[in-house]
Amino acid sequence: MKRKISFIFTIILLIGFLYSSTVRLKDISTFEGVRDNVLIGYGLVVGLDGTGDTTQNKFTFQAIANMLAKMGITVNPKEFQLRNVASVMVTAKLPPFARSGSKVDVTVSSIGSAKSIQGGVLLLTPLKAPDGQVYAVAQGPVSIGGYNAGRGGGNVRKNHPTVGVIPNGATVEKEVPFVFNKENYLNIVLYNPDFTTSTRVAEKINSLIGKNTATPLDSATIRVNVPPEYKGKIVNFASLLENITLTPDTKAVIVINERTGTIVFGENVKIGKVAIAHGNLTVSIQTQPLVSQPAPFSQGQTTTANVTKTTVEEEKASFLMMEGPTVGDLVKALNSIGATPRDIIAILEAIKKAGAIDAEVKVM
Questions:
Q1: What is the pTM of this model?
Q2: Given 50, 54, 343, 354, which residue has the most CB atoms within 10 angstroms?
Q3: Domain residues for 232?
């Protein structure tokens, strides 16, 4: 058990060490305006093998009637008795700088009572952005990456049969207006806002490119002026910036997941002077029936009585006094007393309440 716990914490500490090492700027930030745009649309999946929406989903049959009406076929939605059609919501992400004719993946999700959309085909579906304009259209066979087979109690299902994907299933029809190559400055946005990291980024850029090139605006944004030699060559300048390496600053955080017994903390976690006692108290109560059998031909009666035996076992507590320990010292100490991950969780929470941990504790 000790070796297993030691191995787990070695990996955890290694992760913390790697995170604190130098990284590329592109791995911790992005350029303002360079982002995905979400798209959504309502569509119909047809060709299902009797696993589509039931007659209770009236909007499905109304949508079918509307679609057929546009094709010159007039039908009454109330007369439909179909089980091979399902209403779905289609979602996609329009990547930055996507051009007309580009292909993007789409996700298809049932919104009715369909049991499965396996084997279905999505009909032409316009995909809109929050501004209400159509930026792409989707169509094609749906892949659910699994199956749903059988009837009644003999059903066999793999993965989630009411959600599927269509690789390259949407074609971009309209581009998002964004001119990148005519900017006089670029704003770098950090994924994890931090004033120290923001300042380090600006200092590193200024040392490599020139004084007063970069200015930290806040904990998440660094404004970078485009040098004269890169005017009209913003892409080259952006490539130069995103490959700059530096060491980001991190907060002292301990993440605890009590359900799985997982504990993660980095090297910045500091432990103050603290004493830790660890011991187990086990109370065992056992009840055994005692039968009294009379002698033969004595005309006596058999009687039964319960005898209760209570035992208390208390392990000798391991008492540790720690003064100014590092994370490694704490791990070695907890391993030495045979603490399990759940024991360590309780110990860390107690140390935090005692005010001996200068870190934020996040419980998942």
A1: 0.66
A2: 343
A3: 22-33+180-246
